[in-house]
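From the pipeline queue, job 12 of 40. The input is one protein chain; the requested action is below.

Action: predict structure.
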Amino acid sequence: MRFLARPPGREPGPSRLLYDIPDGAWGQDALLKVLAETIRWCGPKAKPEAAATCLRTNTFQPRVMVDENRFKMMERVIDERCHALRGMPAPSEPPRTEGLLQGGRLLVYFPDDNTCDGAAELATGGYFDVDNVPPWDTWVGMFREDPESPTQSEDYLIAWVPPAFVEVVAQGIWVNAEFCIQWLEDSSTLMAKRLKDLR
């Protein structure tokens, strides 16, 4: 994966992707590979009774999501998870039949819109942390775009929500007053448009 320097300035116009991790500039292959790894890693670990801990592997733990480190932090989580998967045996059960998302859903998190009120953390039993960040094991990609809307933040994270957590995550989204967490398909991001047919 490559880390792209941020282009200087912003130009008016339609949404355009400035950079992303994993690099999907030439298509969706890199993103779909990371998504498959995320599902393979998180699927067996998703335990609703341990919402706060089951998808937060200690060795993957990132630092605070400050702007200058976000993309490198995402690369590290992806690389650590990929490395850990090499040591796991192949799944003994055939994959589910609900398409690429395996019955889960994609979530988007806007770190710059977060007000750290803790409501989503409380509503989900700790699936979201106090900063509304989804568990790092579920992270699929970090994106920066030049959005059409002045109200949309440039940076956002996409995460996969396992089927076992879809309902509780919906509750967390419902109580999130600042809308910093949303289902991807409900967002106005460019990636929502690009992945609208992903099921």
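Job complete. The helical segments are 29-42, 70-86, 119-123, 166-175, 190-194.
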